[in-house]
Known about the structure:
By secondary structure, the chain is of the alpha+beta class. The chain has one domain (5-74): Translation Initiation Factor IF3 (2-Layer Sandwich), CATH 3.30.110.40. The chain has helices at residues 17-28, 44-55, and strands at residues 5-10, 34-39, 58-65, 68-74. Strands 1-2-4-3 form a four-stranded mixed β-sheet, covered by helices on one side. Strand 3 (58-65) and strand 4 (68-74) form a beta hairpin. The protein is globular and about 35 Å long. The chain starts with a strand and ends in an 8-residue tail after the last strand.
Amino acid sequence: xxxxxxxxxxxxxxxxxxxxxxxxxxxxxxxxxxxxxxxxxxxxxxxxxxxxxxxxxxxxxxxxxxxxxxxxxxxxxxxxxx
Length: 82
């Protein structure tokens, strides 16, 4: 499934704000889309994993570079398609 990629800039925000931004974009996403969350809050690794597990989506990559964490999530389920 090929979809669109949405980059979510959450740098400088503390959790739960990055996850809230991610959830808002997920509401607009379609199955096969990718969300890329860029954050400086180390908690995003834990919170994004929990969010993905709860929503049935898949973290495909976690990268860290000089205090910036980038998490790539493949949308497997949306609110409208289960």
